[in-house]
Structures are given as C-alpha cells and as structure tokens.
Amino acid sequence: MTAVPHNPGRDRSRRQVLVTGLAASALLAANALPSPATAAAGPARRTSLPKAVLPKAVLPRPTGPFAVGTVALHLVDRSRTEPWVPGTSAHRELMVSLWYPARPGGAARVVPQMTAAAAAHFGSAEGAAAMNLRMAAGSVDWGSTLTHAYADAPVDRRAGRLPVVLYSPGLGDPRTWNTALVEDLASRGYAVVTVDHTHEATEVEFPDGRLATMRIFDGAPPSDPEAISALLEKVVAVRVADARFVLDELARLNRTRFGGQLDLRRVGIFGQSAGGFTAAQTMHDDRRFLAGINMDGEMDYVGGREPDGTHLSGVALDGLDRPLLLMGTGSEGSGDYRRQPSWAAFWANTRGWKADVTLTGSRHASYTDAQVLLPRLARQGAAPDGGLAAAVGTVRPGRALAANRAYVASFFDRWLRGRDDQLLDGPSERFPEMVFAQ
C-alpha cells in the first residue's frame, strides 16, 4: 500500500484499507487491496429498505452426533489495563462464548448469531461487514440469523471430557464470524471457545449493554510503513495475551462452573487471518497449546509493503515443535508456503508436524461464515461491492464448508484425541479442492 499524506477527509477510507490489510494478516500490498477511493465507494452505500424485507442469512446445520449448547462469558483481566484506550485505568475486558455438546431441554432457546446491538453495528458503515466484506451499510438483517445452539443447555456427558479449542477471528471480525465451523466442531465433541478481541473487533457488546467499538485506529490511521508494523506487533501481542488469559480463566471456570468437563490437558487453538497468526504465535509463547491451525494468516509484521522476510514474527523465526496446519487460499496465491516469506521461514524452522493445504478457488474470507452466508444474501440482492467472487472466490460454498469442517476436525481429532482418519496424509478423492504443498 502506498503511503498517503494525512487528510481528515480520507481517514475513514484509509482505515478501511488498513483493516482489510490487517485482517489479511499484514497483506498490505497495493495489488491485494482496494484503493482508498474504491473502498469508500463500496461500503458507503446504504439501503432504504425496511428491516422486515431486508435479506436474511441462514447458517448450515452442524454435522456431528451431538446437539450444541453455548454460553457467553464476560471475563476481566485484572493484571492488564485496557491497551487500546490510552490513559485509562480500566482493566482489560473480554467477551467469549463457549460452545459444547449439549442436552437441550424442552424450553431451551436457540441463540442468535449476534446480539441485536452487535448485529446492527456489524452491518453499519463502521462495522466489519462494510470494512472487511464491502457490504453496503444497512443492506442485510444480520440480527435475524440464528445459530443451532441452545443457550446454557447442560453438557451432554455422553461426550466424555471435552478437548478444548480456542478460536481467534480476523482483525475487525467478531467472535461470531465463524459460527458454522465452530458449531460443527462442538457437535463432534469439543468445547470451542470463541474470543472477541475488544477494540479490535468492530463491536463487542457486554452484558450491561455497553458496545465497545474499534479503537486501534484512534486518531489518523497510520500510513508510514514502520508505524503500521508497530501497530501489527501490538495487535498480535495483545491477542496472544488475550488467549493466554482466557485459558487461565477456563481452569478456574472448569472447577467452579463446568464440573471438570473441560479437559485442559488437551488444548488447541485456531483462527482466520490475524487470528491464524494469533494461533501460531500463541503456541510459540505458551506450551499449554498443543496444536493449532492458521487459516490464511501471514506471520510477519509487514508495514505497507510486499512481504519480504524483514519483519518476521517469533513463530516464523523459531518454528514450533508441535503440530500446525497452514490453510491458504487459491485465488490470492497465498496457499503455497513458498510464496510467502513468513510461511516459508516457519516451514524451514519448525520441528513439529506441519502441512500446508490450499482450498482451490477460495479467497481470504472463504475461511469464515462469509463463504456460506454471502452467496445466499447475493441471491436476495445484497452482494458485496465488487461482486461475490471477489469476496469468497469461485469455490462452491457447500464444498468449501464441507472441506473446512472436515480438515479442521481431522486435525484436532488427530492431535488432541489420537484419532487419525489419514485425511491429512495427502490429497484425498473426497476433497479434490484441497491441494497439498509438497
């Protein structure tokens, strides 16, 4: 991305460009991003349709043998002050959701994907739908999307003690923006904890009704490459601290609330984009995390330039001695580790099990709910600015979802449960869309 001089009238457009780039884990090269003018032109559009007739999205059902329960948890880290609000004495607050195999009762309530206030902001001009997906503000009734999970349902003890997996979303995205994948993993017998990174996500709603919005670009968004690199380093450091704190809290909650059902000896982590980078770096910094998946996240701190191996992260420089799966995209050329300096460095330096797969015809958002929700919305007239293929590629949504679910479950089954279906050994006739780097 070419640096531009400060101009207050362009700050919002530049912020959109930076969010898009950071959400791609520092893939800030100009050929990977819309220009400021183009970015402004897309998300700035609004619809005047009443909410009752706005397009609505439907999440696909999970495929595992268990029903799914979920509980939202408000956590406060009293060892840290809020890093994105300068001068505050307030402690770091997080919202997380725990998804798990459940036995719903007769009065159990299915929860929406997002709370009403969070959904409204997500779909606004300042929300992730506009910033990351280039959806017109107010063009979708995001609040109407229901999950398949029951609020506070009791744990289904037939699942046994539950391996625990943390999920970190892409920068700007809320913890709810991979529900189709998270629910499926929970239905297969996992406890999945989705984490909102407060003031990085475009919105986080707390139980008292407060809506914490994005603060990482307070003031003029940075344009200097070194300033962008410094921001990236802070983003990842805060995220890693969030993940480690959440795991600490799970140990306490397992004793006091979950009756020891969580098996904290078997813990994994995965994420998309900046969340994938977070997963890898968290494993590097904390050995309690035994296995991880990086879904299309660069692992360097690039500032406004093509990745060139000059700002590598600790996990890229040192590698890992535990398993990490790299999942790249096809149509943006990120799938093969040899095309990305940070992935190539990680590949050369890691000592643990590793694999690199590319979902043919995919785009960066293909590893999120965008892959299954946007095509349905587009058929109702709510398409991303620039077209559906620019957002989620040309891979068929159902095939992408099936492959994502299968490879994520296969990976964690292998490394957290000792169940190996050999799907990760190499190319599979079941999923010809997945290409293995050699």
- Give the oligomeric state: single chain
The name of the CATH superfamily reads Alpha/Beta hydrolase fold, catalytic domain
Task: Give the CATH class.
Answer: Alpha Beta
Q: What is the tally of helical segments? A: 12
Distance between the termini: 31 Å
The ordered string of helix (H) and strand (E) elements is HHEEEHHEEHEEEHEHEHEHEHHHE
How many domains, in number, for the residues? 1
CATH architecture heading: 3-Layer(aba) Sandwich
How many beta-strand elements?
13
By helix and strand content, what is the structural category?
alpha/beta
- Please give the share of residues in helix: 25-40%
Low confidence ranges = 1-17, 23-44
Rg on CA atoms, Å: 20 Å
The CATH topology, please? Rossmann fold
Shape: globular
Largest sheet: 11 strands, mixed
Overall pLDDT = 88
Strand composition percent: 15-25%
The neighbouring-strand order within the major sheet is 3-4-1-2-6-5-9-10-11-12-13
